[in-house]
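Much of the work behind modern protein science is quiet bookkeeping, done one molecule at a time. Below is the pair of lines this work produces for a single protein:

***
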Amino acid sequence: MSTANSTVFLPPTIQFQEIPIGQFFEFRGRRYKKLALSMAEDEDHYGNIFQAQTEVLPDSTPRNCPSTPPARPPASSHNTQPTA
């Protein structure tokens, strides 16, 4: 009887306190955005409190967050309409 050694790859986790504010991360299969030192928001805009030592997965896939509006071009400082 032979036994196959199967290696399970587990991605490296980091502590919640190591994530910069504004960065995305994953926890228990959901994606969150860190809003403050101990607060994050999930994709449904529900706020959640995290302890600093909570192990989370850093977001390795850059995705567009539906809650983040697209950046607007800077407003022009000069008047583009002719004066009469």
About this structure: The mean pLDDT is 81.
